Hints:
66% of the residues lie in helices and 0% in strands. By secondary structure, it is mainly alpha-helical.
Amino acid sequence: MTDLEIFCRQVRARSKDHAKAIDVLYRENIPSQIISILRQELDSMIRVIYLLSIKDITYRNELITASVHGKEWKEKNTKKRITDRKMADLANELQGWTKSVYSFGCAFIHLSNFHDYKQRDPLSMISNEEREAIISHMKAYHFGPQNPKPKFSDLIPYLPSVFSKIKSNLEVYIIDLQNGETIEE
């Protein structure tokens, strides 16, 4: 089995686990952890998008091999680590929405004021720009929330469909990666 096959298998396995976790967390009404899982799924997606942006297939395969063997990704011909920020920024340039969702998700992965969401609305704690990006994405791709001034609680019913959309996009990117395709920056 090639490192590419192993890499794709592990990304799909993580995604499958995430899907099961989302179902349980939604049934149990634990939205903070649903957001954390969404952020982890986005993490997989931005990594695959980053790989797809690399036209040098030899270098792309070096990163895949590093991932399969638990090593950090390094920039080509340097020892400089490729940061999550760099990958998220690239994905945002290509997708236009990942940065705001990724940042929002990070606040649920790390202990933050967002964990007080039952008392204070996390959407009121972010910039207008980030809030508008999240809300416009939700309305364009998930047909809600309909409230003109939505709160975090208004987003919760849409979280499973947000996950499904990210998961299905990720699968398309994995197939592209398996087929040796690239995407333009």
